[in-house]
Amino acid sequence: MRSEENKSVFILVGGWLRDEKTYEKLKRTAPGNVDFYFVHYKHLKHPSFSGDLLKFTKDSGLEKVNLIGHSTGGALCIDFAIKNPHKVRRLYLVDSEGVYGKEKSWEIFVNLIKSNLTRRKFFQNVRSTLHLIKSPFLHFRFAKYAHFADFIFDNFDVETSIIWGERDTLIPLWQGKVLHKLIKNSDFHVLKEYDHDWLFLHPEKFWEIVKNK
Q: For the segment 113-132, what is each residue's pLDDT rounded down to a tens digit?
């Protein structure tokens, strides 16, 4: 069994079509006392996601972990935390799914285009397109699951930090406010001038919040 006395363990479940390389800067800028793991939803089998992630923690010798859920990954992390609260030290929801936004299909498509029209995301978007072409059914299945997720947080007492980009056009700020209201043991951070994908573009902002916990 690995010792976690001097290490903070963070597991990230990333956003839709985003791979480990997308979050490379987040891992690279982590404090020295952090053990960082990336779990891609394509390796997990909904609805057995919680069981798969639980197995991952056991196989990796991890006891209690900090769980980061970005976008689509946020819905999966909420599901795990609800079912396995004893395994989560703190839940970090970053521009996360988990509240049903009731947008129409064309609205989701337009918002997705708006969110990705930036030169800084060019290489991530190229890789995302390739992932979608390779396994369209898998990715659309998870997108549908996350989009329609609308969790009930009765008796949910996992300490949670909700962090949102003020200019998120994909999962708007109001959804973060609803999550904060539903999760009693939560704090809420709004990052002005940042959009949906600030986590991998400006990861230092995330670690600043972590440092103050």
A: 777 667 577 778 788 889 88
